[in-house]
UniProtKB/TrEMBL annotation:
Protein's recorded name: Cysteine desulfurase-like protein
Alphabetized InterPro entries for the sequence: Aminotrans_V_dom (IPR000192), Cys_dSase-rel (IPR011340), PyrdxlP-dep_Trfase (IPR015424), PyrdxlP-dep_Trfase_major (IPR015421), PyrdxlP-dep_Trfase_small (IPR015422)
Superkingdom, taxonomy of origin: Bacteria
Pfam families per UniProt: Aminotran_5
Organism: Mesorhizobium argentiipisi
Domain Aminotransferase class V residue range list: 26-404
Keyword NADP: no
Entry keywords, A to Z: Pyridoxal phosphate
């Protein structure tokens, strides 16, 4: 396939054709949540209408509901290349799952044990560990990112590791700078020190192929609504690690894996949508010429979508770089686009990010301002947290024309705001 099938892709997403008073929408709010293919909405609806029952019975709908749950775990095992479906835990969202797992892991820790968190991560992979440390008398060590490479460096991590380090919480990609960390190398360093590794892959999952077996980490977490699915979170845990853990759970609920980590009645209809989202990637890979397993088709989908997204990211970065006084907080070198996801954040000297975003939102260009829960990132960079950045996030359903319109708007809005100030 010579070119990415952008029109066919866009045709799968009904929201992309919506208008407001005749005005088109440009969805560049994707780091906060993507739109969904029709197949995802259909799967959720079909589940609610035809397999709406709790689990554990012997009648038709409960048997069918169990098949939906099993299919979702199998789909995520393919998406992450898990060794077994028993390693896949599905729950409410990334933050809730991380809080739950942090408390479970806390049962294995003692006062004085150490946890490392980064200054690059979303608060969902920082606050649970800070509060666990406060509860148990643990020591927290903060790992900064390098402001030249925009990544967490192995040397910096090694400088914080000790024989007391029990866990290192990392992120795969930043939801503000877009930088991709070298998770495999960081994991090797942490494991040599005897620490567990917990990876937040929420921002990476829509933009890159994840292979948990190759990474070597112990836990990895992501959110389906960031990769074209419903609002649901997924945690992978290495079998030998999670099998030894005793989670907080009801006394009479199952002790099997992964059920003992999945609290309460599952969101069965959302699991149906999750499977449909994974199958969307597989369909994209098939359209690109891959006829192998679902995992192989998913891999092909990412191969073609990464190349397409990188072209759009380069177009956006180059266009923004033409604006005087605008600072992009992240990798801008076109030779390093493979080291970032297409999430671009910037500030403009003398202009509040919210002011820019409000004007662009009024033109039906959807994007965000603020710290976006990248609390440690803005503090390390010296950006006022109450202001944050302007964040533009590309997905593979966006187009070059949309990026060009967005650039024209940014140039025009910033010039207008400057004129108003003078």
């Amino acid at each position: 396939m010579a070119d990415f099938p952008i029109e066919a892709v866009r045709g799968r997403f009904p929201a992309l054709s919506l208008t407001d008073q005749g005005h088109r929408r440009i969805y560049l709010d994707n780091p906060a949540g993507t739109q969904v293919p029709q197949a995802v909405a259909d799967a959720v609806s079909r589940c609610l209408l035809t397999t709406n029952a709790n689990l554990g019975g012997f009648f038709e709908t409960t048997v069918a509901a169990q098949k939906v749950v099993d299919a979702a775990h199998a789909a995520m095992a393919d998406f992450l290349n898990a060794a077994s479906v028993g390693e896949i835990v599905i729950g409410a969202n990334m933050t809730t799952l991380t809080y739950h797992m942090s408390r479970t892991l806390g049962r294995t820790m003692q006062p004085g044990d150490e946890i490392i968190v980064t200054r690059m991560d979303h608060e969902g992979n920082v606050s649970p560990w800070l509060q666990l440390a406060e509860d148990l008398g643990l020591v927290v060590r903060f790992l900064p990112f390098d402001e030249r490479s925009w990544q967490v460096e192995e040397a910096a991590l090694k400088g914080l590791l000790s024989e007391k380090t029990r866990l290192v919480a990392l992120n795969y990609a930043s939801n503000l700078t877009g930088s991709i960390n070298r998770v495999k190398a960081l994991t090797v360093a942490a494991k040599l020190a005897g620490a567990l590794v917990y990876v937040d892959a929420v921002q990476f999952a829509p933009h890159g192929l994840i292979d948990v077996q190759a990474l070597g980490c112990d836990f990895l977490i992501c959110s389906a609504y960031k990769f074209f699915g419903p609002h649901i979170g997924i945690l992978w845990g290495r079998r030998d690690v999670i099998d030894a853990l005793q989670p907080y759970k009801c006394r009479c609920s199952s002790n099997a894996l992964p059920e003992r980590f999945e609290l309460g009645t599952p969101q069965i209809e959302l699991m149906a949508g999750l499977t449909a989202a994974i199958d969307y990637f597989a369909d994209l890979g098939a359209a690109a010429g891959e006829s192998g397993s679902r995992r192989q088709r998913i891999a092909k989908a990412f191969e073609v979508s990464i190349a397409y997204e990188n072209r759009l990211a380069r177009q956006l970065i180059e266009g923004l770089s033409d604006i005087e006084g605008l600072v992009i907080h992240g990798i801008t070198d076109p030779e390093r686009l493979a080291e970032r996801v297409p999430t671009i954040s910037f500030t403009v000297e003398g202009i509040a990010p919210e002011t820019i975003v409000r004007q662009m939102n009024a033109e039906n260009i959807f994007l965000w301002s603020g710290h976006n829960y990248a609390w440690e990132v803005v503090h390390q960079l010296g950006i006022p947290a109450e202001q944050g950045v302007v964040r533009i996030g590309i997905a593979h359903y966006n187009t070059a024309d949309e990026i060009e319109e967005t650039l024209e708007s940014a140039h025009r809005v910033i010039a207008m705001l400057r004129q108003q100030r003078s």
